[in-house]
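Table 4 source record.
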Amino acid sequence: MMSLAGRVAIVTGAANGIGRAIALALARERARVVVCDIDGEGACKVAEEIAGENGECLAFQVDVTNAQDINRLVAQTLDRYDRIDFLVNNAGITRAHLIDDVDFCDWAAAWDDILSVNLLGPAHITYFAVQHMIRAGGGRIVNVSSRGAFRGEPHKQLIQSVLAVQDMSLHETVTFIQINRRQYFPGHNRLGNAGCILLQRCHNR
């Protein structure tokens, strides 16, 4: 089991919930954490928590559907730390999209929103981060998904399909280089447990 001290981890969707728990857990292992969320104020609050525990971190307001935001995030992370060891793709959304309960415009908008954030978002940030990981000789990517990707749940058909495709797409993207890609399916989980499980994903070779 390797030490995380001094390693650099980007965590998306880190302003609250599981993402916050992951960011705090990594920081407590002395990793340098880049806290990212579309909620910039929330990301700053988590960064303040980390700093209050003598951790090292950066906070960014990032829209994972915006390539310019992602490019800026990766570039500024490299400017500050000169490395990216871990990428935790945690940002995700859901929308009401029952086909028999919404009109077509709302239904199509739900598809657009969820595909943009849950599928293209991780794909885009993986693209930019992997460019550095290739040059550095490797890295680790953890995709936070959902048990719904493999288990049918009422009213979540769209998110299930997106999460399953996300994993397959990123698998095809990164397995040809020395990058350890793992998927995490939290289901109903205590936030402290989520942080501990993700630490195991990052520690393991």
